[in-house]
Amino acid sequence: MKVIRAKTAGFCFGVDRAVKLTYDLLGQGRRVATLGPLIHNPQVVQDLEAKGALTCDGVEDVPDGYEVIIRSHGVPQNVYEKISTRGLAYHDATCPFVAKIHKLAAEAGKKGALLLVAGDANHPEVQGIVGHATGPVRVFADLEELQNLLPELLQQESIHVVAQTTFRVESWESCKAFLKKECTKAEIFDTICNATWARQQEAEDLSQKCDRMVVIGGHHSSNTQKLLQVAARHTTAINVETADELDPAWLAGAETVGVTAGASTPSSIIEEVLNSMSEEIRDDMSFEEMLAASEA
Ligand code: F3S
C-alpha cells in the first residue's frame, strides 16, 4: 500500500499563529481565557486547558485578572466593546484574512449596500462577519439558498458579496456564476483564503489518484468537513480525529491511500495517523517484502 500525504495537510498560518500565541502566554505564566475553543481540535484544546488556559463561552464568563485571547475566527464588534467595558487585557489572534472581511462588512453598510455572505450562519467566523456589518445582511449556505434570495436581491440598489474564508471553492464558483448572470449589480469580493484554496485543490487532485482518502481533523471543524466533501466526490473518504479512530479494516485492499488534514490539525496527530497506517503496512508484508521496502 502506498500512502501519499498532502503537502498542505495541517495547521494553516492563522491557526498556527493563534496556537503559538496561546502557548507563549501560558509559558510566561500568564492567566489566559479563550472565547470558545481556540481551534476546532479537541486534543489541542485539552492540552491548552491542562496547561491552564480557560475556555469561556463569552466575555462575561472570563474571571477578573485573566487576559482574553480572540481566536483566529474573529468576533463581532460588540465583543471588543464588552472586553473594553470589563477593562480586560486582550490579544487579538483574528486571522488577517478574516479581519479583511470584517473591514469589507463595515464598508458595505457605510456605502448603503446590502452585505451578502456565503457561509454557514451558525459558524463563529460568519457570526463575527455579521457582527461587523453596519447595514442589512443576508447569509446563504449554498446556491439553492442564494437562488431563493434573488427576488429580494433584485430590489437592492447595491450589493457587496463576501465568502466565509473556508467556503467550498466549487460551490462559491457556482454562486458567483449565478450572480454574474442574474444580479449584475452585485460586487463580488473573493475572500476564500489561500490556505483553503490550496487544501481543497490538493484534496481534489489527490483523491482522484487514490483508492481511499483519510481526512484528519476535528469532526466539528468546518474546513475539515469541506475537505471530506471534496475528497468523497472522487473516492471513498473517511474523517478521523485521531489514530485510534482509523479502523485498519477500512484500508484493506487499497493500493494507494491519500492523507490530508484540516487547517486546525496539529502535525503530531497527522504523524500518529501515518504511523498507525505504516504499522498496518508492515503487518501486511512478509519479512522479505519489509526488507526490500526498507532498502528501497
Ligand atoms: Fe486564516 Fe484561512 Fe486559516 S482564514 S485561520 S489562514 S483557514
UniProtKB/TrEMBL annotation:
Keyword field: 4Fe-4S, Iron, Iron-sulfur, Isoprene biosynthesis, Metal-binding, Oxidoreductase
Positions bound to dimethylallyl diphosphate: 40, 73, 123, 221-223, 264
Residues forming the catalytic site: 125 (proton donor)
GO CC, any one term: cytoplasm
Domain of life: Bacteria
Positions with a binding annotation for (2E)-4-hydroxy-3-methylbut-2-enyl diphosphate: 40, 73, 123, 165, 221-223, 264
Family stated for the protein in its record: Belongs to the IspH family.
Name of the protein: 4-hydroxy-3-methylbut-2-enyl diphosphate reductase
Organism: Subdoligranulum variabile DSM 15176
